Amino acid sequence: MSLHIVDLPPELLFQILRHLPGPDIGRVCQTCRKLREIGSVDSLWQIKCRIEYKYAVEGGLENSSYYKIYSKVLHKYGKSVGLWRRDRKVYGGLVWIRYDKEGIVGSELLAPLSPNVKESMRRFDLFNISLTSEDEVKVTCTAEVNGHPCSVKVKPKKGTCKYTCLDTSNHLYGDKKIDLKNDSSLIEVLNIWLDNERGSDGDNDMYHFTYYGRGMDFLKNIHTYKLKPLLIQPPVQDKDVPLQPGLFKGTYSAHGIEIMNAEYSQNFNTLTLTKITGDPNVPATKVSVKVDLLRPMVLTANQQESIDNLDGVDTAHIEPGTKLEPQPFVFPRNCSERSGFNPPKTCLFRYHAQGQIAGHGFRSPTWSPGHFVVFDEDTFGMIWLQLESFSLYSRVMEKYDFSKLAQEHELTR
Ligand SMILES: [Zn+2]
């Protein structure tokens, strides 16, 4: 006597189905009524949502079913969830797409205003994806109060995502409607933008508007965001590192605050800061700072008095792996610093480093010597010796669900 698969008890069929990829469950369940019944149990789709898309709702769904969420929202848009960098010339940008109850929300994350590098990131919502009461999926641009249609396209194999607003004519800036065809409306928006984006150090000018954030989008009527995945290095557990990798905000003098991705090389000899947002000199995606972890230093307070002293300092060779104690830190006399930084008397580590500098438009880029100074797990600085200036970096503390992309990063390493 032969046993057909549908003769198995329902609990066992359930277990078989839960190990199939979601789209295959649909196909298998078309074959007979018994399988169709088991395949329509919502707890099966709850499991699929969690395993395939890490989607879970605390307290359960209110208005929909996991099957609908899976088949209408996650199957098409689930791979958009995570952190992305915006593929925009010069400025770049950071976009965060996340689950929100029974849908998906996309936001641009902006650095805090200069010079307050320790403040939280600012968030500007771009779109949301949700189900209507008729179970249709709706993608809405949230740049105006009532919202209007836009499109989100994810290509998981290429690792890209594209967001396009289909109607910029009703976009608001603050509570001001932007009329792109009207010069005086644009000037008004420019003035509001300058008021909003001018940090308390008064730093800002016209090129900030044209190069940075949404200013350029307004003026040039840009309504497409091309996104590339942003890979954050997972926490380092089996090695002594001066600090954990991740996203940092850093002061870049007149350019304001820029966002950096700090990660270690495979052999842990180098720590690099790559720009997620950039400026007209060194644009996004370029490396800003390379720290030579094989060249730590221990300096006395006297050696740090001035930039000239630091520049010519003769540092003893320290064997890699030597356990270093906290050491004196003195802010050099002739070094400029704009963040109102209150320097501590000691630091944890200090290394030789190189910072990338260039003319406007990334002309003639060169590496310039510097000192990389770690104050604590979430704060470090870079003394640019030739520029006689100091950048302060502070960790992005918000928990932007890095887990999904971090895991993918691990797989591709
Ligand atoms: Zn729009």
From TrEMBL:
Pathway as given in its UniProt record: Protein modification; protein ubiquitination
This protein's record includes keyword Transcription: no
Keyword Chloroplast: no
Keywords for the protein's UniProt record, in alphabetical order: Ubl conjugation pathway
Occurrences of domain F-box (ranges): 2-48
PROSITE patterns: FBOX
Family to which this protein belongs: Belongs to the FBXO31 family.
Name used for this protein in its record: F-box domain-containing protein
